[in-house]
What does this fold into?
Amino acid sequence: MTTIKRLGVLTTGGDCAGLNAAIRAVTIRATRGYGAEVLGILQGTLGLMEDPPRAIPLDGQTNDTALLRAGGTILGSVNRGNPFRFPVEGGGEEDRSALVLRGVERLGLDAIIGIGGDGSMRIMHRLMQVGRFPFVGIPKTIDNDLAATEYAIGHHTAVEVAMEALDRLQPTAASHNRIMVLEVMGRDAGHIALSAGVAGGADVILIPEIPWRVEVVARAILDLRARGRNFALVVVAEAVPSPEGETVLAGPSAAGAMPRLGGVGARIAAALERATGAEARVTVLGHVQRGGSPGTLDRLVASSMGVHAVDLAMSGRFGRIVVWREGRVGDAPVETAAQPARPVDPQGDLVRVARGLGICFGDT
Ligand code: F6P
It folds into this structure.
């Protein structure tokens, strides 16, 4: 018999497709499977800090299949709410972790399921170490760079969006003899660029894990032209350094937030125009990759992870994160989420496949 009567669920970090599907799975499993009550905490740990804490009741009836299809998160999210280093007005930071723990007590939560990225997992693990925070994590990130899991919620849908963008750019590239540069997200890793580039028939893929040079990419494009091709598709991860070796930022970031990457595609398009004499255009996909209805894999993974997370909580197995390995759901100690990000392996299978297809990474 479980002693868990009331369970809280929250989403933290950048949104992505599949968060609502996971919230739905948690709610259905906990209410129908165990007769527990579920509270949805609003705005991640920010909702717990407030007085009174901000939460709404969730139940399996009202949050049924419409939620499976919906983008974003009905609970809201925050990506600069680290309670241990909370940015305060006028500058500086303060430790507000005690307020989060107070929120858990006030809501009478016996378990918390947190859906978030690596930073969020680290924060929730630390909350467990400083007080009563009975936590199970579910990993999400379109970047898919968490070391603990082969797959995180949101990645597949983001790749689908980027691949569809290439499908749409290719006819225009061919009609107008152009180089089309597509800039995709990926703060530290090139997984989206690599998968979308292979699936979408890119000629060039530039990722932060493989150093690149303009001359090499220009030569690959000129070779294509020599073989009779009148266009080129180039996929660029936002974290790739510019031709001058700089990280390109979209603008200043808010206090406590990560740097805002964006704009390297335009620099690369300009450099390729100069080097090849061909007309180059750039498309920056940005948050289009995060919103919208989740694809099949994200619905399956989010549903599996949501059910598994509740089963872990109900058996008192806190301090675990749900993982996806070898095509099935499992779990691992939350400490594994603190491992360094999992980059693309430059010697890995997909890079080898891409090279086998003649795709240029700008290095050779
Ligand atoms: O980590 C997910 C991600 O979408 C990155 O790919 C991107 O660099 C970042 O978040 C953008 O964050 P924000 O929406 O806060 O600008």
